[in-house]
């Protein structure tokens, strides 16, 4: 003769977690005397699924690894997904009806306390759901950091959500709602304390000076006051500019690149401002040569380079004597080569070839 499953699961004094498990603290101040009995799952097959891990489903079929999708479907994962989503909806509905004068910010904060994995994990211990977990046997020689699945905080939280999901599959939505309402009534003091703390925080924020509450729009296409949004971190960078746009402007001091083909390196580019060559770089692509030339300019700036202004420079005095006439039989003088050596070896930016990328 088999005994019928229990109709309720009563909480125990297992809220204290051993320090060796290193669980995160709960988001809710629990009291075992203020926890209502949890409705038990009536269907034996559904109750077994709600406490079966994916590892156990594979081990039961003779697999130690390479778990299949069938193993996950046979485990508690689907029930956990259902219970997680429905618990959040039920808590939202109950808080909305119980506190008609609360704003969405306070309601969202209280809901996050009640529906976090930290809260669910301690509820699973209080109702001893972790002790009923079906899991493979421990290894013969467990390692130093080996830990049973039932001692893992996330797994314990999943077991509580799977239990609620199984109750919903049985069509016992009213039982889940009654348990939640009783829980909120018994923990009314803790609930009011959390609401008061968050309301005080919001009130203090409202009393802050307006200049501290001004939010700056994060517009990646706009430079606002010398600062801009970093496209990688999506955060504002600290600007060292005196103003934005900073002087000189390109209209006042035109900058250009003098690009030449370099058969050995691809491109050879000079950065020219006000008629002065201030940067030199080479690269397989034109944009890489430009970047290398700008890098050379920065290196010179660190060394104390100053660029004289063409507008402020004195014009060359006109020569009183005309230049000597050149004999038509004389060869043309050799063209002056660019003084790249005065800047040191121009930096080169190389990109790996497609064959090298494939080898990587």
TrEMBL record:
Residues 65-172 form the RNase III domain. GO terms for biological process: RNA processing. It comes from the Eukaryota. The keyword Hydrolase applies. Keywords: Hydrolase. InterPro entries: RNase_III_dom, RNase_III_sf. It holds the Pfam family Ribonuclease_3. One of its GO terms (molecular function) is ribonuclease III activity. The keyword Repressor does not apply. Residues 308-360 are annotated as: Disordered. Gene3D superfamilies: Ribonuclease III domain. This is RNase III domain-containing protein. It comes from Rhodotorula toruloides. The lineage of its organism: Eukaryota, Fungi, Dikarya, Basidiomycota, Pucciniomycotina.
